[in-house]
Amino acid sequence: MEKVLFPFSAVVDEDDLKMALILNAIDQRIGGVLIMGPKGVAKSTIARSLTDLLPDIDVVKDCPFKCDPHDPSSMCDECIKKYRDGTIVSEKRKIPFVNMPVTATLDRVVGSLDIKRAIDEGLRALQPGLLAEANRGIIYIDEVNLLDDSVVDSILDSAASGINVVEREGVSVTHPARFILIGTMNPEEGDLRPQLKDRFGLSVTAVQPSDPEELIEISNRVEEFDRDPEAFRRKYEKIQNEIRNRIMRARSLLPSVVIDEDLKRFIAEVVIKLQAGNRAMITAVKASKAIAAFNGRDRVNIDDVKEALNLVLKHRVKDSAMIRGTIEKESRDLSTRSVEAGPHSGYEEGSESSGRRDMKAGNGKDEEKDVEVSAAFDEESNRSGRTGNADIFRILDQNRPGDHFDYRASLVNMIMNGRRRMKYEDLAFVSSRSRASIPVILAVDASRSMETMHRIALARGIARSFLHSAYRMRVKLSYITFYGTESHLMVEPTRNLDLIDREISRTVPQGKTPIPAALKMMYDISSRYRQRTVSIMITDGRANVPLGNDVTHDVREWSAKLGTRSDLFLISSTMGSERFMPSYNEDICRYSGGQLIEMDGNGHIALYSGYRRY
What we know:
By secondary structure, this protein is an alpha/beta fold. It folds into four domains: 8-49 and 95-223 and 235-251, Rossmann fold (3-Layer(aba) Sandwich), CATH 3.40.50.300; 257-337, Magnesium chelatase subunit I, C-Terminal domain (Helicase, Ruva Protein, domain 3, Orthogonal Bundle), CATH 1.10.8; 402-432, no CATH class; 439-613, Rossmann fold, CATH 3.40.50.410. It is built from 22 helices and 22 strands. The strands form seven sheets. Strands 18-17-16-19-20-21-22 form a seven-stranded mixed sheet, with helices on both faces. Strands 4-7-10-1-11 form a five-stranded parallel sheet. The longest helix is centred in the middle third of the chain and has 18 residues, at 320-337. The protein is globular and about 90 Å long.
């Protein structure tokens, strides 16, 4: 029995999301959609419902890649042979929808050796993966930010090129892999690397309804659908057919759609000012043409371009106000340039939006230093240099390599060696890395003494540089500041590094230096975990607020306690001033067993002395 999908047109609101999906249905070269938003906002419902808008496709019978029998340029090698011999037999199939699990391995995604054929026939043949199953269809990845980066890279490469190249275990195969890519993510669970985000053509932020009437309507429609799915589908069939027909007409019209040079220049100016990159320019042009085609026009206008830019730039530029401001400013400039440009200038009277202004980011008193924490550490000599490519997180990484038995490779070796029983020389091992992550606590001294010599700006820069490594290792990060008479837990343990990034930018120096309170809070957080944590503390070490009666006693006591639960890395921001004003940094490291890393006046943490073990 075929499952009835919730109709695309029955989803309440979410107009931007619907348009982004429709544009990809019109032109798959746009590069897919990244849907960002919290749970429970119909992200997966609307993605699945897109398949109901797309017509059945003609495929070559028995072809694992579902090649188009009428397009030899997109066929696999076997289908090309049949095409030349005139032996192709076609059949109709529904457009494939592949739900990519977060646990998907690279073998399962790109394809691997067909073990059955290797055993039965002694042949190295391809076992098609999910990319093959999704050819000419849709790949849906829920929580794409939690998928392994190597898997995401492979999917995005195929989405961009339209082919999948498999070079594994002696198998060398190239096959078509053209699909609409839909990825969803909840930013609270962690972000995607900017390089991976950029590979998605469009992005939309789905939000929770704020209007009670809208929420009631959603509830009513879901209840009606659950009662009688087939009757509910028929209720929206007319609207569904209208959208389906518009998509098909737009596909036919798309090759003849043109965009004028002044509109291309407008897109280029916006992209350059927002530093969004080449792919943003290319995608914006494609999306603008698709919008025009969907609206039944063969010429792009300014409104098409504005709508496309908003979909293209959201995941490439963090500041949405800057996106709106730049688009509006450049569109006003375009209208001025187009006064004498004639009827095909792309600018139509009345298309300019009002009530928006150019937003400029202001600079604070202390500009944050652009700090590069990429020092290489020589653990045996305790010296450091700046020629390596490892950073502090290399030392913290618990994902240490280990050799594990690779049953698949061992089986292949046995078969290829002509044996039916595995011998020692057939055994294969692979170095693998655990996906377990380390809880990391980042504590920044925000006392008044950090204002001297721009220490707080340097500290903010160093703290922010750690976020890049934290993302790569999928760690959960806590953020603490300490000033006045106590420490403050600004961000609970999270993978949402944007939240920590915002708090770092708000950190300003004030009050005294309560280091014992910070050490105690780091110990308390570490005590929540069974495993040891990693603590990174950035301070000048000038503690002057005790927890009890004596600062020195409190510093040593809580340093020792922290050392039982956490590996401490203390980045000293004294910059040589400890000769004139005492610092507790060496005491903290000595009693905690931590490592002292010294920072120079440029924010380089390993230019001179590196770290010292205690």
